[in-house]
Amino acid sequence: MSGVIVSVDRNSGMVATVKMGDQITVIDESGVETGADTGPTPMDYIMSALGSCTVITLHMYAQRKNWPLERAEVTLQQRTLSNTESALAAGDKRTLISKTLQLTGDLTPEQISRLKDISSRCPIQKTLEAGMVIQTTLI
């Protein structure tokens, strides 16, 4: 199991320091009053994980098939669905993430169609769609 350590101290406002292995970065909840706009938001990181997993999965698949995929780009947008759109009870919220793919290369229509299908099979998308169990322990 890989570990990520995230911390916020009293003087940092809403800026969290994130340590992932030897990498250190920040997450900033800039939409709130004490955010400093010094880094991406938590949702930016979720969408970045989904987008990077999608394009990497596409390239891995295309390389295995020896297909001429030169570039894969995905644009992601997120919004909260209304209760009528999501068929949830009043007060419940559901998030919709829209992915728009742009594939560059001398690909056949069949290859493009298959890559579109493969784009939804990246591990991050599968995890997000399945939901997660999160266990909290206080030490």
From TrEMBL:
It comes from the Bacteria. InterPro entries: KH_dom-like_a/b (IPR015946), OsmC/Ohr_fam (IPR003718), OsmC/Ohrsf (IPR036102). PANTHER family: OSMC-LIKE PROTEIN, PROTEIN INVOLVED IN RIMO-MEDIATED BETA-METHYLTHIOLATION OF RIBOSOMAL PROTEIN S12 YCAO. This is Protein YhfA. It comes from Adhaeribacter pallidiroseus.
